[in-house]
């Protein structure tokens, strides 16, 4: 396909880039088939990822070792990234090392705080918090970049805030070991996640870096950061001793946890490339809902219906945000829409009152 055709926005022809999932070529399939293959793989790997994450934290005495689990996870991710770069024959670095220093720190904050929060939070509550990344993204974009958002985005953020607050209140009432430290940790994870998205996207676009390179450098540098801190605080020795009590089980669980997460990330990126961000967010949101259901089924925990309808508020906020991206609306558009609705209602009320008189006059 010529460059002029690409710039003109024409549909891709058969010579479009190769699409693979776990090194399996799916380019020959139609887009709907590609969507179902990617969606099925996302569900399989991320449901396993969530199950393993909660399973690890149900082990007696594991609560204080979330950061050591993150260290092991970063180590595995670094190895996986190195293997993938060798398979894909990627030998040079595209993004400046200074950018990777920042990306590694933000990645460490996102995953480290997220893992550590599970020592203090109910797993469904953690998932609901992670669904609400829009809130810090919206606030940060306004304060840092001066962006302007429409009424639908603000409405989505309000729905998420209300749903999140009600879900947390329900958790605090039914969980005897509810700890606000977990809320702080998952909030910090969300803040880092909101920042890293902008930095990562900008870097990958500006330098054309492949996913495997970003994974390798972000997680390997993050591993060094965390190792230094944990050695200095003594947490590394404590974690090492705890894992040595049952190394096959603990490191085995951590390997499955890390491998499913790594493969899941690669498949989500493929889904974005083949079907778009909207489809990817829809699939991952449904996956999170299924993960919460599985959490209640396989891991005994108290349940209240406030979980259900407060979670639905969060889901509604997510899809309102997605709708606003496809159908942007300004404050002026909202005013016009409201005025149109008011005029329509007034006209219907007027016609309803005047209708019989007109009918009698016509007779």
UniProtKB/TrEMBL annotation:
GO terms for cellular component: endoplasmic reticulum membrane; Golgi membrane. Belongs to the nucleotide-sugar transporter family. SLC35B subfamily. One of its GO terms (molecular function) is 3'-phosphoadenosine 5'-phosphosulfate transmembrane transporter activity. GO terms for biological process: 3'-phosphoadenosine 5'-phosphosulfate transport; transmembrane transport. Pfam families: UAA (PF08449). It comes from Tribolium castaneum. The keyword Transmembrane applies. PANTHER family: ADENOSINE 3'-PHOSPHO 5'-PHOSPHOSULFATE TRANSPORTER 2, SOLUTE CARRIER FAMILY 35 MEMBER B. This is Adenosine 3'-phospho 5'-phosphosulfate transporter 2. Keywords: Membrane, Transmembrane, Transmembrane helix, Transport. It comes from the Eukaryota. It is found in: Golgi apparatus membrane.
């Amino acid at each position: 396909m010529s460059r002029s055709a690409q710039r003109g926005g024409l549909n891709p022809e058969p010579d479009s880039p190769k699409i693979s999932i776990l090194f399996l070529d799916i380019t020959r399939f139609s887009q709907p088939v590609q969507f179902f293959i990617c969606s099925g793989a996302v569900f399989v790997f991320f449901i396993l990822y969530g199950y393993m994450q909660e399973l690890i934290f149900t082990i007696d005495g594991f609560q204080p070792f979330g950061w050591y689990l993150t260290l092991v996870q970063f180590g595995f991710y670094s190895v996986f990234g190195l293997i993938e770069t060798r398979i894909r024959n990627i030998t040079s670095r595209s993004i400046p090392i200074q950018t990777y220093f920042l990306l590694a720190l933000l990645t460490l904050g996102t995953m480290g705080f997220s893992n550590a929060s599970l020592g203090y939070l109910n797993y469904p509550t953690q998932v609901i918090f992670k669904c609400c990344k829009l809130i810090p993204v919206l606030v940060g974009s306004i304060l840092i970049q001066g962006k302007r958002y429409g009424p639908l985005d603000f409405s989505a953020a309000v729905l998420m805030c209300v749903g999140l607050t009600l879900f947390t209140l329900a958790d605090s009432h039914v969980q005897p070991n509810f700890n606000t430290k977990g809320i702080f940790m998952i909030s910090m994870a969300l803040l880092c996640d909101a920042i890293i998205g902008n930095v990562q996207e900008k870097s990958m676009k500006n330098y054309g870096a492949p996913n495997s390179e970003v994974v390798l450098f972000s997680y390997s540098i993050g591993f060094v950061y965390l190792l230094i801190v944990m050695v200095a605080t003594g947490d590394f020795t404590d974690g090492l001793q705890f894992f040595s009590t049952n190394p096959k089980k603990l490191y085995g669980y951590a390997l499955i946890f890390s491998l499913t997460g790594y493969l899941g990330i690669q498949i989500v990126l493929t889904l974005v490339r083949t079907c778009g961000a909207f489809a990817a967010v829809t699939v991952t949101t449904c996956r999170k809902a299924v993960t919460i259901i599985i959490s209640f089924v396989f891991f005994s925990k108290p349940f209240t219906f406030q979980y259900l309808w407060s979670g639905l508020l969060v889901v509604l906020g997510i899809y309102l945000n997605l709708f606003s991206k496809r159908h942007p609306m300004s404050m002026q558009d909202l005013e016009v829409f409201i005025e149109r609705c008011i005029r329509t209602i007034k006209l219907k009320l007027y016609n309803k009152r005047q209708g019989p008189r007109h009918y009698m006059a016509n007779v």
